[in-house]
Batch of 2 targets.
Target 1
Amino acid sequence: MYAYDQYDQAFVEQRAAEFREQIERRLSGALSEDEFKPLRLQNGLYLQLHAYMLRVAIPYGALNARQLRVLGDLADRYDKGYGHFTTRQNIQYNWTKLSDVADMIDALASVQMHAIQTSGNCIRNVTTDAYAGVAGDEWLDPRPSAELLRQWSSLHPEFAFLPRKFKIAVLGAAQDRAAMKFHDIGLWAKLDADGQPQYDIWVGGGQGRTPRVARLFQEAVPLADLLPTLDAMLRVYNLAGRRDNKYKARIKILIDEMGIEPYRLAVVEELARVDRDAFATAVGEYQRIAAQFETAQRPALQGQKVPEGSPEFRAWLQQNGLTHKVNGYAAVSVSLKTKGAIPGDASGAQMRAVADLAERYSAGEIRVSHRQNLVLPWVKLNDLETLYHALLEQDLAEANVGLVSDIIACPGLDYCALATARSIPVAQALSLRLRERERRQGPIEASLNISGCINACGHHHAANIGILGLNRSESETYQISLGGRADEGAKVGDILGPGFSQDQVPDVVETLLDTWQSLREDGEDFSQTYDRVGKQPFKEAVYV
Amino acid sequence: MARNAHAYALSANDLLTGEQVFWSHQGRWCLSFEDALFSTEPQNLTPLGNAEEAANRVVGAALIPVDENRRPVELRDQRRLQGVSVAVRTTASEAASRPSAATLAQAA
Ligand code: HEM
Ligand code: SF4
């Protein structure tokens, strides 16, 4: 893993001290809320319905055991015993007291963590594949690129007040496991003929009220040109992006309005003005970072074999395991979607238990996935069954990663001040129902995502079955969309029709699954069937 | 004026804890909606909320429109009053000190 140098550590500590002082001034009344709000948002502190919420950055979703242990301790000490892992690979604490925040941030700084740029109109936490560095289908480890971007974007003086928030994802594998095309900028890292990194750059993806799949901006950008190109892309957006209407302020709208070609030309012009010397050290820095990640890679192991184990163990491994790029290892997902659970929530005890298991069985490493699960990336094949039993004890061995019961959900109207409907109870009811269906039918490979308002934090647009909670005539109604997907073939789902009440949702979802299963042809996934037959048969089935 | 609003209560979040609080008959913030003051004249409550914010006791002061039965008209307010839909324990620091104490005492 990447380890902070003295510069990183000093920066995080200085920022923690600064924010402590700002909080003290707020509590003493020296700062008004209007003055304090931009300061707290720059440090990831929101005000929700019942409490403050602290969003902690997990750069590219990578954690070591010490860090996860501290996250667990924060949950127990300052929250109500749990934290919520998000689709942006961060963690949120929903019950934070203003007077505790400075101590929380000090504890984070002690393990090289922080909450900077987890809010506000800046470049947010850079995300990536949760299986980075270990996936069997990987061309290039995306983490050095993500770390380079973290360093470039942290407190970038020009990009602290963009027209709107800005989200970047980096991939380095054949399969998109990070919803890359739903980001403001997506980078698909590959190797050139000489084995050097190069990037396909995608731009203008996003969700919210105007969902867009990113468009290809440029192929095969060499590493040396990456930061100058991104700088130019952001400068054009910073100048031309709309600031008059926050719903039209994302780069996707600029590209809709301007057109991708004129945007590309504007970036080329801007690139001619970019001071290339300012980026002279980037390639060397990339190599330094990449070397750190490489040393942490493990050599192939001989004599490792997956234990025979019980049928339950084998089903778990089949579902939650991923082929590793290094012989002798497997990468496994730890599902945070146990039957009836709140998607993405983990208790302090569970976080500490996973930290212990990571130390014992996964080279001390943990990842957070965009589907709100955890990943143990370095498990020796011989250890798999022992690990499985240890996870079972913590209620963390649900064999459903990538299945329809592996639901993504945002906090919704239980916590979020912007919400129009609850999403947690809907997710819980569906989890019970769908886990039961999977028990009867075996694995059901489809995605189901829920958002509590049009902001789409729960990725409902990008799911095979998307559920959006709305507030209509003083009660919740849930609008269903179908056919979305977040992988390489990213697509925005189509709205099915009028919404349903909370009680109706589980039956409706089961009817949709029945319909798909009755129409699917050999080996088709949900999207393939949907693309072939269209919306009509699903509509007819649910609006009888 | 909110649709179907018969009267209004004044709510806010406690500055220190973020907990939802209500302006009460006693002329101070309270934790229970049961004890909230209801007024048919929102123009009287709004300046009060602003003053309490300016005094740095609360944030996010806002009116809750209610019907004849003192039931919030808006879904968001109804759900907020119900609290979270899952069982949650108190925080360790809550156990040590009542969260809104500072606010309640200062405003008294
Ligand atoms: C409770 C506090 C939260 C607030 C106030 C909030 C606010 C927002 C807003 C306003 C947008 C729409 C941005 C736009 O369209 O320009 C958005 C999008 C998004 N948020 Fe959140 N969010 C919150 C929690 C979360 C959580 C818990 C997650 C992860 C589960 C999350 C992940 C995302 C994602 C993935 C998007 C869509 C991607 C995009 O920006 O286009 N947010 N959020
Ligand atoms: S989708 Fe809406 S309700 Fe859900 S977290 Fe985002 S802003 Fe809140």
Target 2
Amino acid sequence: MNVVTPFEGIGASVKRKEDLRFLSGRGQYTDDINRPGQAYAYILRSPHAHAKITSIDTAAAAAMPGVLAVFTGADTAALGSIPCGWQIHNKDGSPMAEPRHPMLAEGKVRHVGDQVAVVIAESRAQAKDAAEAIAVEYEVLPAAATMEAAQAPGAPQVHEGVAGNICYDWHIGDKAVNDAAFAAAAKVVTFETTNNRLVPNAMEPRAAIGEYDATTGDYTLYTTSQNPHVIRLLMGAFVLQIPESKLRVVAPDVGGGFGSKIYHYAEEAIVTWAAGKLGRPVKWTAERTESFMSDAHGRDHVTKCSLALDANGKFLGLRVHTQANMGAYLSTFAPCVPTYLYATLLAGVYTTPTIYCEVKAVFTNTVPVDAYRGAGRPEATYLLERLVDIAAAETGIDRIEIRRRNFIPNDAFPYQTPVALQYDSGDYTATLDAALKAADWAGFEGRRAEAAKRGKLRGIGCSTYLEACGIAPSAVVGSLGARAGLYEVGTIRVHPTGSVTVLTGAHSHGQGHETTFAQLVADRLGVSVAQVDVVHGDTAKVPFGMGTYGSRSLAVGGSAMVKAMDKIVAKGKKIAAHLMEASVEDIEFERGTFRVAGTDRTKSLAEISLAAYVPHNYPIEELEPGLEETAFYDPKNFTYPGGCHIAEVEIDPDTGHVQVVNFTAVDDVGRVINPMIVEGQVQGGVAQGIGQALLENCVYDASGQLLSGSMADYCLPRAEDLPAVGVATHTTLCTHNPLGVKGCGEVGAIGSPPAVMNAVVDALKSYGVRHIEMPATPPKIWGIIHAARPAMAAE
Amino acid sequence: MYDFAYHKPTSIADAVKLLSADPDARPISGGQTLLPALKHRLNKPSALIDLSGIAELRGIRREGDKLVIGALAKHEEVANSAEVKAAIPALATLAGTIGDTQVRNRGTIGGSVSNNDPAADYPAAVLALDATIVTDKRRIAADDFFQGMFTTALEPGELLVAVEFPIPEKAGYAKMRNPASRYVMAGAFVAKTKSGVRVAINGAGPGVFRQAEMEKALAASWSPDAVAGIKQDPEGLNGDIHGSAEYRAHLVTVMAKRAVAAAG
Ligand SMILES: Cc1cc2nc3c(=O)[nH]c(=O)nc-3n(C[C@H](O)[C@H](O)[C@H](O)COP(=O)(O)OP(=O)(O)OC[C@H]3O[C@@H](n4cnc5c(N)ncnc54)[C@H](O)[C@@H]3O)c2cc1C
């Protein structure tokens, strides 16, 4: 590492460069872009969860004012399927079921919101008016609205040829070893739970504009994406057969993604293809109602698990059986979320020697389910941290003590878990101790007694979590079924007078990359943050990239920039040696200054770059002019942030309302580049975690209708639902990337739900409560209290 | 949104004329209920008659032992009105808890009362305070006005002009919000009025209704404890993904207790 800059470099809470345009309403989002001659697409969606389309008559719609074209599945049937980016194998080694996912429904609709037809018109209103004139006859079929319904005997078949609606039946771990551990256990604790289904709800709804230039054959897609190069690959190669050289994908300012904007969606292919057909740009923007029924949802697991313990509370083995809802089609990353991003995390921060996990992925007549902030790790963490609390209660061991007894000790790193991952670093005792202190865990009983005087039930809960992010080593994920590499690309372009442009394959949709990445450059090259411009989100500008998800931007994308800066410095040294007539070995570089070692002879980066671009006095025989370098960085391992979250809640026993009154997060995210941005990321994640624990729930009825289809019925957290979240970090460095960074984008959403639920259960412990399912809504809590009250009164 | 014609009359007479000439025309006040419905294409009026230019519909004033609130009074105006705060503080408090800041700065009492959403706030106050609805044609007692979910005594084309609230001796309001929509899940407005004690329950049922048993108990003894033991029958109450009828019935008692406590 280089010297830490006190000012704008690594460790400084530099204010976010991007906020001026975001906070003043001057961001350029996809819907802000309008292309000359632009037409508008409106997508007619299925009102049914499961139905045969017996006929579609578009004649009346096509004759409506302003209508340019109406397309149905018959027009797009020859095009490719919306592809899935990850192939999981069954226990028997056979590949998962991977049914076709058409751009527009082909004879059958499989979820409410499935695309049936698209109208393209001169205005959005005309397109929408015409869509109402499309006559679709449906033969409504019974729906498999839940995983249970999908697996019942005689269940409706979501896809022909997919037996029992099972996408895959996968497992990890050694079952025989695991069985033996359970046979030898002094105590076995079992537990069943549902991880509630969530709707991501980014502030900016999805949008896409397709454009085609007949003179060059070039297509351009503007889209709300977290990874434009991935969309270019998936849509170009698999759906529309457009070569990369003829397809530009631009993801401009994007207003939040949380995973839901990773995937390649049908609408992107529809507008791009239609633009080619019509020779005019075609724009589509989702209405919020459409977002609810067409953005990939998150979570939705049903799990049974057991923990084997010895007489001292040491974990001997963990056994997990999970059913994971895939929805009606496989979204881009869907199959890997409940497998390699979930089961591999089941060791958590504990030394559990054997873990066996089976996962059945099930097709249902619901919106596709995919990664949502945390993706698999919140599901694993929730399961594990609730299970540990239940084990503590049932063994009579204090819940902090049982954790300490099972922590992976500091001297055990690198630590090989029984579920494939090898942790490089961490200090779980330190983050636990710091959190206990910050939350005044020791003083809790006093606060409980004080709350009781006010008629409130107060509880406290913790979670000591771990996650794997910074995805991921390409060879490893390739062997696990990924159909892409997961490296990242960075270009550092030092301009003639010394300012710097960074091109990155990572994509910022709220994370503050333009600031954090600039700080990396400022720290290394000694320029000011203001002199660094970060360019992302355009395949025509950035050489390549895999995008932003899985808290990978800094760990992988930042590392690529470091590698590129290494090359800049190496070349700069050669130029400096020439200019100062010294040997290259004698040139030292520190934050923008090249120096002949042991002398006061120096050249600034600006002098070197000027010489590189105006090579009058330059080693032109050995060195090319210019000062621009690109690096691809493929990580050696995942990174492993972890820490401790503590929640304190108060319950109003009259209404069942739960209020989180205190929340403490102590996270080890590796080296911190910008503490303010880390704090913001953690707070945002915690808000979503509290949302999952207490408020958010996506509900379908038995016929597959989405009951929580708008903000009026789907409860997102509001400011008054959230406490002031205390955020602190405790750093152990990642040992395998050049920055020592781990990632902070998802920790908040991963660590917080079990902390909140453990607190809720603690608050209700006098009612004999063992477990409460998320979300802990007022009627649910009231039901528990109400059911228990007569019994308590009778005591 | 479908196309519609737009008119902005400046008198009640002109508005009524426009409405009677076209049965598919609809009045619009703050638009906080009507506009979302139009955007979702749930409604297809031929014309919108914007009432916001009619001065006669404005104003909040004290007239003897009555508080008269013009139909166009925004929730925010009612919440901050010195007249309202002095005469019926519970009404000002109620108005200040409707929706959010944006909604309160657009939505009107006339729109809310005419709309009679079962989960709206104002209908509970109107009913419990034994208010009178003044229209362009007649005066309607609150007991006759609310006729169940989204239904009122207003005839097509009839305009709500003002609401007259007799000033009570005491009044209080408490509600539990639906966590998602923040509309009322169950609420109780209690009032000690010249015509006796009145308790109106909103949110819990398909329309605002009076709770006779609680009225009787409070008439006998005005205290939170008086209603604490009275159970609301869940039969006929709303049940949905946010809570069962039983839960709402339970909340009715809790909110009534809190409303009495708030009234003092
Ligand atoms: C996000 C949001 C949250 C909300 N939360 C709440 C809440 O917590 N509690 C609550 O009570 N309300 C809530 N509302 C509704 C809000 O209070 C509305 O203002 C109110 O329901 C209608 O008033 P308006 O002036 O906007 O009426 P409009 O939308 O203009 O009209 C509503 C209906 O009344 C008719 N109408 C309007 N004025 C008259 C009149 N003078 N005579 C006859 N008919 C008329 C219209 O034709 C229409 O049918 C919320 C609204 C939104 C958008």
